[in-house]
Design brief:
By secondary structure, the protein is of the alpha/beta class. The chain has one domain: Rossmann fold (3-Layer(aba) Sandwich), CATH 3.40.50.1820. It is 40% helix and 15% strand. It has twelve helices and eight strands. The protein starts with a strand and ends with a helix.
Length: 293
């Protein structure tokens, strides 16, 4: 697995699929998830459609740089945010969502790629939006998948989904894999099943079990605030994709994103939750193929 320096402080693990002379598609993964959450076969299928596909580990996740010198107590952090003590919350978090966006753009630079189609999922959608808003000259198109705008009134999780998201996962392999079944709460009602969650959880645990990064990533995400003003003036081809079964980021987050970005296309997907069921890959790949063509 290649690892490349994208700044003096950060090295990023990544993998590519396809022909480097084809248009580049940068896949940005979400909160606490490693790049392998972009399924290898999904990446290969997109590459076979004439795209140079790049997936990577965000900082504090997978095999990329870890910020061990900056521990974050999630309970204290959430308490500070809940009480409105934003200064205290900011002091706990060593980086921002903008820093995470700069990592992705830095990876493109290190690979000699000037412009790319950016596809972000969940928190990765927030990072992708940040890339597009801040550095539109580097972005051929934006795809925001199962994400939101940072406005608290949109894309709110259900109580059950939020409880699962913030519950600590077991530290032993068997317990960690079993706990993945909790994520059925936000999966596709039609296609979600426990086995499809356990297998990637096992691969993730074996590749890099690293719960310490979770608090820092959630801090960067929560403190980013609203991107509404930037999205309103975004002048890029934009596709918004959201599953109608999503309970982790309610579909109102996707609808709001599409409402804000001038000319954005909105694709609401029946039978998809906060996941990408294999049965829906043809629809997802067709949409990405059309948008990045």
């Amino acid at each position: 697995m290649p690892i490349i320096d994208v700044s003096p402080a950060v090295s990023i693990a990544y993998e590519t699929f396809g022909d480097p002379t084809d248009p580049a598609v940068l896949l940005v993964m979400g909160f606490s998830a490693q790049m392998i959450a972009w399924d290898e076969n999904f990446c290969r299928a997109l590459a076979e459609r004439g795209r140079y596909v790049i997936r990577y580990d965000n900082r504090d996740c997978g095999l990329s740089t870890k910020f061990d010198d900056h521990p974050v107590d999630r309970g204290r952090f959430i308490g500070a945010v809940s009480s409105g003590d934003i200064a205290a919350a900011l002091a706990m978090v060593p980086y921002t969502l903008q820093d995470m966006a700069d990592d992705g753009l830095g990876l493109l630079t290190a690979l000699g790629i000037e412009r790319a189609h950016i596809v972000g999922s969940s928190m990765g959608g927030m990072i992708a939006q940040t890339m597009a808003i801040g550095r539109p000259a580097r972005v051929l198109s934006l795809t925001s998948m199962m994400s939101s705008t940072g406005e608290p009134e949109y894309g709110r999780p259900s109580a059950e989904a939020q409880a699962v998201l913030f519950s600590p996962k077991p530290s032993d392999r068997e317990g960690y894999i079993a706990a993945a079944e909790r994520e059925l709460v936000w999966a596709s009602k039609r296609y979600g099943d426990a086995a499809s969650l356990r297998e990637p959880a096992a691969r993730s645990f074996d590749r890099s079990y690293y719960p310490a990064g979770v608090g820092r990533q959630v801090g960067a995400m929560i403190l980013d605030g609203s991107r509404a003003d930037g999205l309103r003036v975004l002048d890029l081809p934009t596709l918004v994709m959201h599953g109608l079964d999503d309970t982790l980021i309610d579909p109102s987050g996707g609808k709001r994103t599409a409402d804000l970005v001038p000319g954005a296309k909105l694709l609401l997907i029946p039978d998809m939750g906060h996941d990408r069921p294999h049965e829906l890959w043809p629809d997802l790949l067709d949409a990405l193929d059309a948008h990045t063509g």
